Please model this.
Amino acid sequence: MARLIRGLLFGLLVCISSCHSVDSSIALTNEDYKVYSAYINSFSFYKNASSADTIIITDSTTSISNDIRPNTRWSGVTAMLGERCHYLKDTASCRKVQDPVWASLFENVKLSSHTKQESLLPVKFTVHYPIQLLSQFRKKPFEQKWDDSLPYYLFGLSRIAYNADTTKALFFGSFICGGTCGRGELVLMEKMNQTWLLIDTFRFWIY
Model:
């Protein structure tokens, strides 16, 4: 049963990654990959999962049209309370999220869902585990894909909206890690001392 659920979730993300147009001529910047890498590295399971196999990413940035409705307002998002602000009682995060610049970045992220998506290159990520494209993972034999001794993490990453001086970044990230494990969230990152740090996440769906 777990394998069936896992297969269905996997198929859902495959559809999300393949059911939109991709413009391979538009390259993501090095800053984009630094933001994505900081996001993936921020996961507690990622730091502690010594037996983790490959991190899998969709072949291109993903659309958020099915996750965030066009009429969703930033005030409605913040009303949900962020994961760090709400659950970890991180008062610094609560204050940082109140910066009005996030509202305009949120609108830009919603608009980016209606444009062509950009190809992702595994070699551009700076993370501690190997990264593999979803198309490569799909070529593996079924038994290798669902080897329970080697947990997998399948990420979808939307295009990023930055503020004017490229010190704040906002995008939609999602991941599936088998069975009933996974979530989709709005991600807020801030650059401090030349390092991108996770400010907070606002969850839109969870398995």
About this structure: The two ends are 15 Å apart (CA to CA). The CA atoms of residues 35 and 43 lie 13 Å apart.
